[in-house]
Each structure stands twice: as C-alpha cells, then as structure tokens.
Design goal:
The chain is α+β, with helices and mostly antiparallel strands. The chain has four helices and nine strands.
Amino acid sequence: MQKLPVEFYLRDDVVRIAKELLGKVLVSQWNGERTVGRIVETEAYAGESDKASHASKGRTTRTSVMFGEGGTAYVYLCYGIHQMFNIVTSTEGDPHAILIRGVEPMEGIDVMLKRTGKKRADHTLTRGPGNVGKAFGFHTSQSGFSLLDDELFLADDGFQLPVGSVGVSVRIGVDYAGEDALRPYRFFLKGNPFVSGKIK
C-alpha cells in the first residue's frame, strides 16, 4: 500500500481527482485506533465559481483551509451533528475540495462500531458522509491536517476498478446552487452497498 504523494493533490482538475479517488484507501490512526476503508463515493467542489461549494462565499474562518495548498483535510460540521471529511486539492488560493461520501470498511470495524454506536457491521456503517465522519473519527479540530502524515492519509493498494463500474451523477443536497446543482460531479462504484443516496 503506497501513500498518495502530494503531487496527486496539487493538480487543478478537481473532477478528475474525485473520480480517481474511487478505489483508493482511506486510513485514519487516532490515538492508536486504526480504521481503513476503500473509497466508493466522492463529490467534487470546484472553487469560488461553484455555487455549491463553501468557497463560493469567499475565504472565512471555516473555509480558510480550502484556500491553502492541496493535500490537507477540510472537516466541517453539518446540521450541528455530522463531521464531514473533505480533501483539499489544487494550489494555494484555488479552493477545490472533494467530499468523501462512501467508504467500504477494510480494517478496524470494531472501532467503527464503537464510534458510531451501531450494533452490527452492515452497509450503513460507512454509507454517507456523516457515517464516514463518525466511523473514521473525524472532528472539525482536524481541519487542516496533512494527508501525508501517518495519522491520516490516502493510499493506493493496487486495486483496479472493473471496466464500466464508475457511475456519475449530480451532487446530493445542493439544490440551493441553481444551475451548479446540475454539474455531474458525483462519482460512485455501481452496485456497491456503501454508496449513499439515490441515483438520478
């Protein structure tokens, strides 16, 4: 398993990166608790011009991380409950980010169950960004953390996506963004039970 290099994140094509993240491995190691899973659903957010992006309102205390150099985590609180994990990409001043919406567990399922309060490891464990946040132990205090350290990183374990397995759709829950809500910026592995939402 090879940790993704910083060059992977510094490219300016956030849509391409969001698609390439499918099949990659997410690893968190907080306080000796290791959780690992394969990314099966992502959403791209393309900077200040994208009305669905937090960056569309400019640099704020919350979004300042998005305006930094790629290869860091952007974690925000949704509905006062869910810790949403995003990956910052591109170069400083170009606030691209990718929301991780679905992950298939690989290691540390006992830890994920404890964090989520679930009784059994079914597909709801890490289906949807809120569950991903809980299962992997994300918190807004980790916003800005490097994805190149040992505590948190993404890796390539050689997994190959089957031909024709990648689905594409509009993003979920961004109707407020007008025409930008229709951008085909959501990517997922077809038929994977850890993919959230309804396919349009």
